[in-house]
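Q: My collaborator sent me two sequences in one message, no labels, and asked for predicted structures for both. Can we handle them in order? The first one she listed is below.
A: Yes, handling them in the order given. First sequence, followed by its C-alpha cells:
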Amino acid sequence: VSLVWWDVESRRTEVTVPEGRAEWNKMMLEYRHTLIWARKLVRDANFPANRDIRWLGRLFDGDAYAYATVLILQLHNLRSLRLDFSFVLEEGFPGEMLHHSLFGDAPLGMLSQFSKLEMVDYGSNFPPTELRDNIKLPRSCQFIPWFYLPSLKVLEIWLLSVEGISVLPEKTPKIPLNLSKLRSLVISKTSLLPEEIASLLSQVPYLESLHVGMVYKCRATAEFLKAPECLLRSLETSSQTIEHLSISLELLPCCLQAFTLRVRNQAGKAFCGMLMKFPKLKTASLPLKFLIGCGTPSWELRDVLPSTLEAIHISHDLWPAL
C-alpha cells in the first residue's frame, strides 16, 4: 500500500497538505454504512475515552486520514507500507492506532499488529524546511510502534523524538525492542540531537544501509560541528556491516542569512578519513567537509576513501560556496 502524493525529488518549495475532507456533508448519506462500520470499530477497539471521542468526531466529520487509517489497520498480511508526510502532520493517525494495537487494550485481532510488515515509509518525504517553522508539532507517540514490528527490514521515517524508542517513559509497556532484522534505516530531515541519534543507532546492530539527515538551527549546528564525536562513535558501532552510508546536515532557512559558518580547522578534524572505518562500504554520500575535515590540508583520495568504495556523492550542504 502506498498513499504518497508529494514527490521529494520534485524539489518544490511550496507544498500544501491535502485537505482530509471532500464535500462530506453531501456524501455522508451515500457512505453512511462506512461511517457506521468505522465508528463501531473504534468503539470496540477500547481507546481511552479522550481519544475515543476524538476519533469518532473525526470520522463523523469525514476526515480522510482517519478513514484511511481504519482501512490500513485491517490489512493484517501487509508487507509494504508507504505513507505521505501529511499523515504525520494530520494527527498521526496510523502511528497512533498502531501504538494502541501494540501497547493498548485493543482486543486481539481487531487491529492489525503488522506482524508481517517488512518495509515502512512513514513520512520520509518530509517537504523542504521552509514548512518547519509553521507546522504544529505532531504527537510523538505515533513514531514509537514502527520500531517494534517483528518482521521489519526497511524503515524510512521522519522522526520527531526517540522517547519510547531509545528512552522508555514509565507509561510505555516494556515490550522488548528487537531491531536485529532491520537492514536499512532512513532518518529524514530530523531535528533530533546527535546524542539521540547515537542512542537509536546503538540498538540497530546489523544495518547494511543508513541515511541520517539532520536539520538544525544555528546554535545546534555549530555545537555539532565542534563536537561530532558522539554521532561518529555510534556510526562506528555499525561500521562492520554498513555497505551504504549517507549523511546530510542542513541549516534551517531562518538561519541561512544571519548565520555565517566559521569552524576552526581543528573542529572538523574528527570527520577526516571517517569512511576508512567502514570495511564493507560500497557507496557513500556526505558533505565535502565530512570527507576531508574542515581544514585545508593536502590530501589524496586514497587517504580518505576505503578501497571497497564503488560510488560516492559529495554534497555541499552547509558549505554552498565550495
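Q: And the one she listed second?
A: Here it is, processed independently of the first:
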Amino acid sequence: AYEIKKAAVLGAGVMGATIAAHLTNAGIECVLLDIVPFELTDADKAQGLTEKSPAWRNRFATNGLAGVVKSKPAGFYTKKNASMIRVGNFEDHLGWLADVDWVIEVVIEDLKIKQELFAKVEKIVKHQCIVTTNTSGIPIKDITANFGAKLKEHFLGTHFFNPPRYMKLLEIIPGKETKP
C-alpha cells in the first residue's frame, strides 16, 4: 500500500489553500507554494522589502494560508493544523517536492502554465510520487501531452469540490497510462 505522509499543493488561492488545510485535517503535512509577485509595490518598499525578501517572495502562499485560517466555514478542524503547512514559492522552493508523496496542482486554468509547471515538477519528484491536477476543464490527455512515461503512470486528475472539508466529493480522473 502507498502511504501519503506529506503532500505539496501548487497554487495557494482559495481552492489550493483549503485543499492543503483539509489534508492537514487527515494528518498529512503540506507544502503550499505559489508564484512570486510580479513587482514590489510602494507599500512593500515602505516596509523595507526587496525582491529578495522571503516575506515578499512567498506573499501569495502566506496570504493563502492566512485566508484559510480565517475562513468561514472553517477549512481546518483546528487552527493549530496551520502549523503543518510550510509556505514558499515556485522559484525558490520547488526542491521541497523531492520528498513528498503527493503533488496536487491547483493553478490557473491555463494549459500552457500547467504544462510549464509540470515540466519542472517532473524533474524533481521521486519516481513513485502521485502527481495530480485539480482541473475541471482541461483534459488530462492535453495536460500530459509532454510528460515522460513514468510521470504519466502516476498522474491523474483529483478534482476537489469547494469547500473541500464540507463537500464530500472527490472526482478521480485517470489518464490512459495511469496505473491503477
